[in-house]
Write a structure and sequence with these properties.
It is built from eleven helices and no strands. It starts with 5 loop residues before the first helix and ends in a 6-residue tail after the last helix.
Length: 355
């Protein structure tokens, strides 16, 4: 006989709730991305806030607000200083490159087409290859001005400039209260201890990951800037800034930055081989020497998983998904390990049958 199955009803209801939550998350993806950026910025600034808070005189009535204010003054001052020293130069170089790049491409293509190898078959193949490259690069060159305008408009967006630091301030100010409210959702017992362990580990991993990204970005900017200055490559500050910023995008970012640097160097100077050798050498040093020492131990993800996360994130949410892929994988790994350890500990704690 047909009847009402309570288990099937609960399973169906659970699936419907999960699908509804996923749909609502998709609708609110931009707002959630803003809050995630604010949360990451809060983790980046939390060590500075803690340091200042420890240095200030102790008092029963004192809160973290003075330490927060001082940390934000230092952070904003550093950002303004970097913008004055390098940002204005990079913007001027970007405007100059956007206006001159199409002409540089045409001149370089004409030079390549006029050169001959002495073999008709090779010359024909070369002309076909150059034609394909011209079609691709020409589209990029024509889009550079509009892309630069779009980047400037995004960078000057009030949401990114004002809202994110404000949200980060509240995350830092009320972090302890938020953590307490989340933990108190569970009763005293093993589950609450597991949740506390997961939250502590998540904080350490996110803070370490953001600090590592900033340090890797600064290292790339410094190395690129010194190398481009020594070789006298035009638009050196712009290319160094591009390489440093794209370090925040795992794997794909450095590849895109390297391709752009080689392209600009190819149409402006004759140091293409030297630039390629430097980029390959720096990537080896960065990925196998610098990054393993800077990255925290909690962000231990297999390269295959990183590749999967990067491409999956790009397919789901574009650049934002690519940027968030590694921290999301790290958090999933933390939750899995903590739950697995708790399950193993529970099994060991259960006494076996009496003999």
């Amino acid at each position: 006989m047909l009847g009402f199955d309570s288990k099937a009803a609960r399973a169906t209801w659970t699936v419907m709730v999960v699908l509804l939550a996923a749909y609502v998350t998709y609708l609110l993806r931009f707002t959630l991305f803003i809050f995630v950026l604010a949360l990451l910025l809060a983790h980046l600034l939390s060590p500075l806030v803690d340091l200042i808070d420890r240095l200030l005189p102790a008092s029963r009535t004192r809160t973290r607000t003075p330490a927060l204010a001082m940390a934000y003054v230092i952070f904003v001052g550093l950002v303004v200083l970097l913008a004055i020293q390098f940002g204005s130069v990079a913007v001027k170089q970007a405007q100059s490159l956007a206006s001159k790049f199409p002409g540089m491409i045409q001149s370089a293509v004409a030079s390549w087409q006029n050169s001959s190898t002495g073999n008709a078959t090779l010359d024909s193949m070369k002309q076909e290859a150059i034609g394909g490259v011209v079609n691709k690069v020409g589209g990029i060159a024509s889009a550079l001005p509009s892309m630069s305008v779009e980047i400037v408009s995004v960078a000057s967006n009030v949401i990114f400039v004002v809202i994110i630091p404000i949200l980060s301030f509240f995350f830092l100010k009320d972090a302890a209260a938020l953590r307490t409210h989340i933990v108190e959702m569970l009763d005293e017992g093993p589950n609450r201890r597991v949740l506390e362990d997961v939250l502590d580990a998540m904080h350490l991993v996110l803070a370490g990951y953001m600090r590592s990204l900033v340090m890797l970005s600064a290292a790339a900017f410094t190395a690129y800037g010194i190398f481009f200055t020594i070789l006298g490559i035009p638009y050196g500050v712009l290319l160094a800034a591009l390489g440093g910023l794209l370090e925040f995008i795992p794997m794909l970012g450095p590849f895109v930055a390297g391709a752009a640097i080689v392209l600009v160097a190819g149409v402006t100077t004759g140091h293409v081989i030297g630039v390629i050798i430097f980029l390959v050498a720096y990537r080896i040093v960065q990925d196998y020497i610098i990054a393993p020492h800077i990255m925290e131990q909690g962000v231990e993800i297999h390269p295959l998983m990183v590749l999967f996360g990067v491409f999956a994130g790009a397919e789901i949410a574009g650049v934002a998904g690519t940027f968030l892929s590694v921290p999301i994988l790290a958090l999933v790994r933390i939750v899995y390990l903590r739950l697995y350890r708790a399950k193993v500990a529970a099994r060991i704690a259960v006494p076996g049958p009496a003999v």
